[in-house]
Structure formats: structure tokens, C-alpha cells
Write a structure and sequence with these properties.
85 residues; 4-stranded antiparallel β-sheet; alpha+beta
């Protein structure tokens, strides 16, 4: 018998992304934006694409990002600039 083929299936999980941001004209006022999607854990390419889009196209400055995965009680808290750069 030859070598065996191994197939790895990557399951999508429900993700909740919480973004705390401010508008440059109003730096003393923080806003919150929540977004829910299905994404591949732990890489989260869809979440990264969304955050990169925000960084490149939206004038609001992200102060903090919280990512929560549905099948765990974990909240992944990351500094926006360290995470994307």
C-alpha cells in the first residue's frame, strides 16, 4: 500500500468581533461596533480582512478589538496595531 492521504477539515465557528473606536474629530468620545460572522479558527481570515478594510478605508481610529469564539468562553483581546502590523 502506498502513502495515505490525510484530509484536514477546518470547521468554521461563530465569531463575535467587538470594536471600540473613536472619530478623529471627537477623540474624547468612544463608540462600539459589534460584528458577527462565521470564520475559520484560529486563523480568522475573514476577521483580519474586515479589520484591514476598516484600517484602510474608514477614518475612525480603532482603540481596541475583542474577538469571541462561540464554542469557548474565551475572549481574545488584542491591540489593533500590534495584531495587524
Amino acid at each position: 500500500m502506498g502513502g495515505s492521504n490525510i484530509i484536514i477539515l477546518r470547521k468554521k465557528e461563530l465569531i463575535l468581533v467587538g470594536v471600540i473606536y473613536y472619530i478623529p474629530d471627537y477623540t474624547n468620545l468612544l463608540n462600539e461596533f459589534y460584528w458577527q460572522c462565521e470564520d475559520i479558527v484560529p486563523d480568522m481570515p475573514r476577521v483580519h480582512k474586515f479589520l484591514n478594510f476598516w484600517k484602510d478605508n474608514i477614518e475612525a481610529v480603532i482603540k481596541e478589538v475583542k474577538v469571541s469564539v462561540s464554542n469557548t468562553n474565551q475572549i481574545i483581546k488584542a491591540d489593533f496595531y500590534r495584531r495587524l502590523n
